[in-house]
Amino acid sequence: MRRLWLIFAQTTTVALALFFVIGVLRPDWVDRRPAVVEVPAAASSTADGANAAASYREAARKALPSVVHVFTSQKIRLPKHPLFDDPLFRHFFGDRPDGETRSAGLGSGVIVSSNGYILTNYHVVEAADQIEVGLNDGSTFKARVVGSDPDTDLAVLQIRAAKGEELKLPAITFGRAEDIRVGDVVLAIGNPFGVGQTMTMGIVSALGRSHLGINTFENFIQTDAAINPGNSGGALVDTQGALIGINTAIYSRSGGSLGIGFAIPATTAKSVMEQIIQNGSVTRGWVGVEAQEITSELAESFGLPDADGALIAGVQRGSPADSAGIRPGDILLAIAGKPVKDPQAMLDLIAGQEPGSTISFKIRREKTLMDLRLKVGKRPPPSRRSND
């Protein structure tokens, strides 16, 4: 019995010694419990589901076929070199006629109807005598300008199928630009630098951008989605692939994207497009005044309580404003009951009035408040316009 006890004691001692040595030299052998890793709910889904959650492939599938390349060219007449006026020079080198060359341009456009109407920027097709549209599937068509609106920098093109064929183009879906908010994800589609159709991603950086000196009527969506030369006239879409804006301009010192791009809201673009398709042009109200912003210094000199309103700097003779008795120096406070905050707001309110309608102008003349009635005229084209 004593012998068995000694064997047990010696065995236990050796085992404890071995455990101690192992614990000192290789401690990672001691604790071999399996590690517990928490898996987020999103990561526990299938790989395809995880990729789809972070992808905009569905928006791309819907919107990409509706965005086209717009190629333009313009004939430019080169002046005759002065040496050709010398008879001796012509004797040796011949009498050569004036040369001609063509300048090429590129931009983008958005298919807005299955029967061939395309929305783009006016500056993309301005002065072009040949326009060609390239579709997403590689086919090309000659296009004509249905109408344009330089004040918003928009134009409508139309392409036609060959005789005996019928167009069935993938028209884009219009979204509600008024529902977007700063921080929403947006996608810009176009043909930057002519490399081919490209989609970039960003967010809405700001809304209602104006006073930029780009267009007469400005209410831009600002985005940091990369927009470069060639993107003009292309689509700004939401994550569902619906059109919320027409890419128009960028702020850049290098010519490339610096993360500040501007798009015309889809609601404005749609309204202009419908008028152009129906009437060939856009009709806006006009009264014939020039307005100036009221600075704090001007407000103090005029004895005004604040800087709201627009200072009438000029009135065109024979215009509706002249007939109503509006004078330079008047402060315009409201139009048709809606307050005027600055000259841009005044311009937008007047343009939104129906030509031929009679509206009220609330003005301050010196220290007297007055309500004048005037009949709104039709806004003339830019080439004939001297006042707003």
Note the topology.
Elements: H1 2-25, H2 47-53, H3 57-63, E1 67-77, H4 87-93, E2 100-111, E3 117-121, H5 122-125, E4 130-134, E5 140-149, E6 154-159, E7 185-190, E8 198-209, E9 220-223, E10 235-237, E11 243-250, E12 261-265, H6 266-279, E13 285-286, E14 289-293, H7 296-302, E15 310-315, H8 320-324, E16 331-335, E17 338-339, H9 343-351, E18 358-365, E19 368-375, E20 377-378
Antiparallel strand pairs: 1-2, 1-4, 2-3, 3-6, 4-5, 5-6, 7-8, 7-10, 8-9, 9-12, 10-11, 11-12, 13-20, 14-15, 15-16, 16-17, 16-18, 18-19
Percent of sequence in beta strands:
25-35%
Structural class, judged by helices and strands? alpha+beta
What is the fold-level CATH name, i.e. the topology of one domain?
Pdz3 Domain
Spatial strand arrangement across the major sheet: 1-2-3-6-5-4
CATH homologous superfamily of one domain - what is it?
PDZ domain
Radius of gyration: 34 Å
The number of helices is 9
User: Mind telling me the CATH class of one domain?
Assistant: Mainly Beta
Order of helices and strands: HHHEHEEHEEEEEEEEEHEEHEHEEHEEE
Mean pLDDT: 82
How far from one another are the termini?
Answer: 119 Å
Instruction: Kindly state the number of beta strands.
Output: 20
Shape: extended
For the largest beta-sheet, the strand count, sense and barrel status come to: 6 strands, antiparallel, barrel
InterPro entries: Chloro_Bact_Ser_Proteases (IPR051201), PDZ (IPR001478), PDZ_6 (IPR041489), PDZ_sf (IPR036034), Peptidase_S1_PA (IPR009003), Peptidase_S1C (IPR001940)
Protein name: Trypsin-like serine protease
Keywords: Hydrolase, Protease
